[in-house]
Design goal:
alpha+beta, Immunoglobulin-like, three-stranded mixed sheet, three-stranded antiparallel sheet, globular, signal
């Protein structure tokens, strides 16, 4: 009887760890601006959102030829995000379905 209780507790702990493993994944990625223009706005919205969230760069910019580490984790548990970058020349680039639980870097290239 005691053995069954121990096994049940151990199995519950394993299920609990499996269920929360997506929550524990690192969602920090390096954004590389390998273009000729500064990125003046950057947005990352999880696949459950119907609109863009706030500009992650805020009052900052990502200069041409530079990189920045961004923590994409918004507390939602999502791994898939859409990215939107707005450049100093007015161009906009949207890239859909980026898995930030697997990506370590994302490149913007000319």
């Amino acid at each position: 009887m005691k053995w069954n209780a121990i096994v049940a507790v151990a199995m519950t702990a394993c299920v609990s760890v499996s269920a929360t493993s997506a929550w524990a994944l690192d969602r920090r990625i390096v954004i590389n601006n390998n273009t000729s223009f500064d990125i003046v706005e950057f947005y990352a919205s999880n696949k459950g959102e119907n609109s863009w969230q706030e500009d992650i760069l805020g009052r900052n910019i990502l200069p041409a030829g530079n990189s920045v580490v961004i923590n994409i984790d918004d507390g939602s548990g999502y791994c898939k995000y859409d990215f939107r970058a707005i450049f100093a020349d007015g161009d906009e680039l949207v890239k859909y379905d980026n898995n930030v639980c697997e990506l370590s870097e994302f490149n913007y290239n000319d």
